C-alpha cells in the first residue's frame, strides 16, 4: 500500500546487485522538490526540514544495511557456545542445595535435578541455535 502498481513495476524492473532500499528515498526527494516548485510546499525551510529528516532516516537504513552486509565471524559463535556451556556447568555445581544442618562431611554435593537451571540452559541453547 506504500507504492502504486506502476511504482512497484518500476521498482521491480530496476536492476541492482544490492538492496534497493534507497530508491524510495530518491523518489521522495524528487517529489518533494516538485511539490516546492508547484507551490505545495510554501517555504524552503519546510522543504529543508523534510529533506533533513529523510536523509537522517536514509542514513539509518544505510547503517542497518552495513550491519547486514558484514557477517558475524565464526569465532564469535564459538565463544558464545563455550560461554553457554561453561555457564551451565558452573550453574550445575553452584546451584546445588547444601543443608549445613545435616552435618555433611566436607560439604559434599547434594545430588538433585535442578529443574530451573535445566530450563534456563534449554532456553539459552535454543536461543544460541536460532
What does this structure look like?
- It is found in: Cell membrane; Membrane.
- The chain crosses the membrane at residues 82-98, 110-127.
- The longest helix is centred in the middle third of the chain and has 26 residues, at 44-69.
- The chain has two domains: 3-67, no CATH class; 72-127.
- Helix content is 67%, strand content 0%.
- The protein is elongated.
- It has helices at 5-13, 23-38, 44-69, 74-94, 115-129.
- The chain is mostly helical.
- Helix 2 runs antiparallel to helix 3 (44-69) and helix 4 runs antiparallel to helix 5.
- The protein is built from five helices and no strands.
Task: For the record, give the distance between the C-alpha atoms at the N and C termini, rounded to a whole number.
Answer: 32 Å
Query: How many DSSP helices?
Result: 5
Q: Roughly what percent helix?
A: 55-70%
Taking all Cα atoms into account, the compactness measure Rg is 29 Å
Percent of residues in β-strands: under 5%
Number of domains: 2
Average pLDDT level? 84
Q: In this structure, how is the largest beta sheet organized?
A: none
Low-confidence stretches: none
Structural class: mainly alpha
Number of strands: 0
Shape: elongated
What is the N-to-C succession of helices and strands?
Answer: HHHHH
